[in-house]
Amino acid sequence: MAEAHSPLAQFEIHPLGGPIHIGGLDVSFTNSALWMVLAVAGITAFMLLGTRKQAIVPGRWQSLCEGMYDFVSGLLKENVGNEGRKYFPFVFSLFMFILFCNLFGLLPGAFTVTSHIVVTAALALFVFFMVTIIGVVRHGLHFFSYFVPQGAPVWLLPLMIPIEVLSYFIRPLSLSVRLFANMVAGHVMLTVIGGFVFALGIWAGWVPLAFVTVIFGLELLIACLQAYVFTILTCIYLHDAIHLH
Q1: Rounded to the nearest 5°, which phi and psi values hold at 30?
Q2: What is the dihedral of CA 194, 196, 202, 206, to 10 degrees?
Q3: In sequence order, which residues have a C-beta less than 8 Å from that of residue 125 and are 6 or more positions away?
Q4: Element (H, E) at 141
Q5: pTM (2 decimals)?
Q6: Rounded-to-integer distance, Cα 47 and Cα 69, Å
Q7: I need a surface site. Which of 30, 51, 188, 223 has the fewest CB within 10 A?
Q8: Distance between CA 104 and CA 41 in Å, rounded?
Q9: What's the whole-number mean pLDDT along residues 185-205?
Q10: Using CB atoms within 10 A of its CB, is residue 28 exposed (0-12), middle (13-18) or buried (19+)?
Q11: Are 6 and 192 in contact (CB under 8 A)?
Q12: What is the pLDDT of residues 1-39, one digit of tens each?
């Protein structure tokens, strides 16, 4: 377990209100679960505020909601086509959940849910199995032709097919590690440099404080960018499952 002063202490998961065990399983309500609930509550409040009036001339909240809607809808249309519309609720929910978890993690004293590989891996595996099932259901055994590169010489297929299969099954690993690693690295950097502000005092602390401000702005950008990257890769995987090319 990380010590209190360690930059890694902020990533510790601990139960709130005491541990709860059922049938030998630990089902305690943790700080991680709390911030997931808060992220869902934040998304719900955001969408309710933006859609309660439905004005012809949109206000601030309605413009934000419509902007988010159009953004994700545009990603699906550009990368999947019209057949991607039926998957909009899932892709939109995925984008909003990751975005709010990333942004909430930047609040003082908050817990960054997406800084844990178990969370990002669960999201990535869900996407992986979903698009695989969609591909198999739509195309049957023809789905496996996806692993045969078009136009490749026959004599190269014994080498290229295993590479294609490996690259396909490594998708959830790359998808989960990318989000997890970016969140951990940024928060550790903020904690380490932020500690210099207090260590150096009021006269010399302004130098690391300036760096903290810049890094925080960068982390804000990365929080949004990583939600976008996760979502657009999900759209690309959907395209592959639907169109097989």
Answers
A1: -105, 175
A2: -70
A3: 172, 176
A4: none
A5: 0.89
A6: 10
A7: 51
A8: 12
A9: 70
A10: middle
A11: no
A12: 445 467 676 778 888 877 777 877 777 888 899 999 999
